[in-house]
C-alpha cells in the first residue's frame, strides 16, 4: 500500500521518521512522501530521515518555535492558520501514486492532539484518497493534562478520518524502562506492526508470489466504515528453507516446501493468529463485535500454509462474529520469522476509550466548579463591599 505520511507534533514526527527508516531497511516502498509538522523547532531538528524541506515549523508568530505547551486548542489554531505552508510541502508528494494518507500524532500533547484532526479534515476536503489516522494514546502515568488532551482529541480525530488506528502506550510501556527507552521501544513496535500491514501485497525482488494476495484494496475495504481500529501482531523464529535451483527440482530434488511438515506449518500459523488476536493488541479491546477484520501471514513462501491461513480466517469469523474477515499471505524471504498481523476494524467494546470519555466528563465538571469558585473569589476581592484602599 502506497502512503503519504504526515507526522504532527513530536510523537507523530518521530514515528513517521521511523517509518521511512523501516521502508529503506526492508525495501517495502510503502512511503511515497512524508511531511513533519510541529510548533517546536527542536523536535524538527531531531528528525533524521524526513528531508529538511518537508519539516514544517508552524505557529512562529505565536510561540516562536518553542511549542504550544500541551495547549491543544492553541495547537489547532496555529495549524489552521498555517495550512497553506503544510499544503506547500504536500504539493511535493506525488498524490497520483498514493493509495491513502496517514496522519500520525500523539494525542496527549498540544500540537499533535490539536492539529492532527485539523489536517485530516483539510486532506479529506482536497483529496479523493482515504485519509486514515494513527493516534498514540499517552500512558496514564504521564499526567492529567495529557489524558484530558487525549480524551478530547480522540473524539475529534475519529470524526475527521476514514478510520482511526490507535496505539495505547499504557499497554506497551515496560515499567523498568526509562522514558526515552520506553518511547523508542514503542515507536519500534508501532512501525514494525503497521509497517508489515501496509507492506502486504507490495511485490519485492527475490520474494515468491502470494497465493492469496492482500493488496491495498483489501486494507481499504477493511477500514471502510470508519470508527476505531486496533492491530495484533505475533511472530515465531524459523529456519527458512534453502531455495533450490531449477536443475535440482527437475532432477528429483523436490521443492522448497518438501522439507516442512504440513501439520507443523498449519499449527504454527493458527497458534500465531490466536496469539496476535488474544494477546497484546495495539489498543486492548473485546474482540467480539468487531465489524471487519483482516489477517496477513508473512514469511518465506514454503512456510505459508494455505490450510493454516484458511482455518485461522474461519476462527477469526467465530471470535469476532463478523462475516467480513479477509485474509491472505505475504511471502517475505530472509526475515527469519513467520509473522502474523490481525487488523480489527470498527471495534466497539474498548475499556481504555470508555475510561478517556469518563475522564473528559469529570474534567469538564471540575473545570466548571473551579471557574465558578474563581468567579466568586474575584467578586469578593473586587466587589463593591471591599475597601481596596485598606489593602495599601
Secondary structure: helix percent: 40-55%
Q: What do the pLDDT scores average to?
A: 86
CATH topology of the largest domain: Rossmann fold
Record the strand order, biggest sheet.
Answer: 3-2-1-4-5-6-7-10-8-9
State which percent range the strand residues make up: 15-25%
* Number of helices in the DSSP assignment: 13
CATH architecture of the largest domain: 3-Layer(aba) Sandwich
Instruction: Tell how many strands the DSSP assignment holds.
Output: 10
Give start-end ranges of low-pLDDT stretches: 245-258
Q: How does this model look, in words?
A:
- By secondary structure, the protein is an alpha/beta fold.
- It has 3 domains: 3-199, Tubulin/FtsZ, GTPase domain (Rossmann fold, 3-Layer(aba) Sandwich); 222-347, Tubulin/FtsZ, C-terminal domain (60s Ribosomal Protein L30, Chain: A), CATH 3.30.1330.20; 351-391.
- Helix content is 46%, strand content 19%.
- The chain contains 13 helices and 10 strands.
- It has helices spanning 9-26, 41-45, 60-63, 72-81, 83-90, 111-126, 144-160, 179-199, 216-223, 246-253, 262-278, 306-320, 351-382; strands at residues 3-8, 31-38, 55-57, 100-106, 131-137, 163-168, 228-237, 292-299, 325-331, 337-347.
- A 10-stranded mixed β-sheet has the order 3-2-1-4-5-6-7-10-8-9, with helices on both faces.
- Strand 1 (3-8), helix 1 and strand 2 (31-38) form a beta-alpha-beta unit.
- Helix 6 packs parallel to helix 7 (144-160) and helix 7 packs across helix 13.
- It starts with a strand and ends in a 10-residue tail after the last helix.
- Residues 365-382 have a biased composition (Basic and acidic residues).
- Pfam families: CetZ_C, Tubulin.
- GO terms for molecular function: GTP binding; GTPase activity.
